Every structure is written in structure tokens, then in C-alpha cells.
Amino acid sequence: MKVGDLEIVPIVDGTGREYAREVLSAPGGDRWACHPDQLDDHGDLVLTLGGFLLRTGDRTVLVDAGVGRIHNDHYDGGGFLEALAATGTAPGDVTDVVFTHLHFDHVGWATSRGEVVFPRATYRVHTADWAHFVDAPDADPGAVRKLAPLRERLEVFDAEHTVAPGLDARPTPGHTPGSTSYVVSSRGERALLIGDVAHSVVELAEPDWEAVFDVDPAAARAIRHRLADELADTDDLVAAAHFPGLAFGRVVTVGESRRFVTV
Ligand SMILES: [Zn+2]
């Protein structure tokens, strides 16, 4: 997807499936019947897994790193490095890996068997997520094992800042304590990579819906409202971490309601 002079390339790793009515619900009752097009025949929400590649100046940046070599009933990954190679990018070319947050389906290719996968990269994440997923006494041992090898190449942040020319990090906490969106801008055009601020396009139309994965549901809801309001009926593009095909779109008002419309 072109944003001014920059190009953002979706890098697909695989697919996840979650029973929609179990993981994402409207307050006050089941409203999935209003969004049948977002479910498969089994009532599953199909989640694309992966990340985004952005080249800017002399930097080659990955935003999130897929789910990794996982094959179970829900998640199936493994295509990330091949998809990256298809763009002409080798692991050693990547200068920065920036995370929207540290859930397993975003850090799959951060490390493999105790070694960093992108050997020259600086790995960047919000302080609050590193504290929550790695340094906390009750942190999940699997997450700690996966993420601890990053420590030597890690840079944490706790505020909005410019990561690289045309790439800004903007903390949007709620889904996790350090959830961060990335704003790509060039020549007056913008695209927001919002991570898991919304898991399904439904959440941009209906920001009050609640995802079981949100660590702080009230904060997550507030951020969804704020971003949807900011994006609605503008030229800004938006892509989330799991929208089908990692597609970009716009938030548009149609009658009384909002919709995510792919471009
Ligand atoms: Zn996710």
C-alpha cells in the first residue's frame, strides 16, 4: 500500500481461528447476526497473522513478527520469512522490529530456538508491555523464553515518538498495557497500523464490543472510540494486525453507522 512516497507491504505468516461468539461480544446481547459476512461457516472469526514491512530512508522496518511455526487447532503459521523473501528482504536486512504489543501472535519470529531471527535489528516495544510480559513475577514462562533473547537488542519507549522518517509510534494502551499504534506518513498522506486495537473490522464500526483478549477492556474501548472518531470520513488509511488479508481500508460513515471499507 502506497502512502505518499512510502510503501507498506503486508507480510502474511498464517491464519488463526477463534469462535467469534466466545471472543468478541456486544454489550447487552449477541449482535453477530448483524455481521454475518465477518464469520465463516462455523461461526469462526478468521484472523490473518503476520506483520508489515516498511522501508524508509536507510531503514527496513517490520511492524510485528507473526505467530511463528505454530500448528494447532486454532493457529497455523510459518510463512513469514518466505513472504519476506518474496519482497527481496533477508532477515539480515531488517534494521528495526517494532511491536504493537507482545502477545504470542505478534512475536512469533522475534526469536527462534533462543536466537534472534533478525540479527541486525533493534527491537522496539513499549516499556509497559516488556514489564507485563517479561519482567513481571507472574509472566508466562513461554513468553519469557520467547522474548528474553531480545534483551540485548531491545529499546523500550514510554511516549509518542518518531521511530524512523515517516514512522511514528503512538501508545494506544488497553488491549495490553503498552499497546502501540504506528503512524506512517508521507507527503500529507497517512496510514495507521493499529495492532489489536481492533481484532475484527466490526470493532471499528462498533467500538463498544468487547474482546476477551483485552487486558483493560474499558481503556481498550476508549482507545477504539478515539481512533475510530479520528479516522472516520478522512483519507487516512488503517490496517489492523488481523483484518482479513491484512487489508488496508478507510472508516466511512454510511447513514447512521460506520463501516471499514477496504481500498
Ligand atoms: Zn493479535
TrEMBL record:
<keyword id="KW-0378">Hydrolase</keyword>
<feature type="domain" description="Metallo-beta-lactamase">
    <location>
        <begin position="48"/>
        <end position="242"/>
    </location>
</feature>
<keyword id="KW-0479">Metal-binding</keyword>
<keyword id="KW-0862">Zinc</keyword>
<dbReference type="InterPro" id="IPR051013">
    <property type="entry name" value="MBL_superfamily_lactonases"/>
</dbReference>
<comment type="similarity">
    <text>Belongs to the metallo-beta-lactamase superfamily.</text>
</comment>
<protein>
    <submittedName>
        <fullName>MBL fold metallo-hydrolase</fullName>
    </submittedName>
</protein>
<dbReference type="Pfam" id="PF00753">
    <property type="entry name" value="Lactamase_B"/>
</dbReference>
<dbReference type="InterPro" id="IPR001279">
    <property type="entry name" value="Metallo-B-lactamas"/>
</dbReference>
<dbReference type="InterPro" id="IPR036866">
    <property type="entry name" value="RibonucZ/Hydroxyglut_hydro"/>
</dbReference>
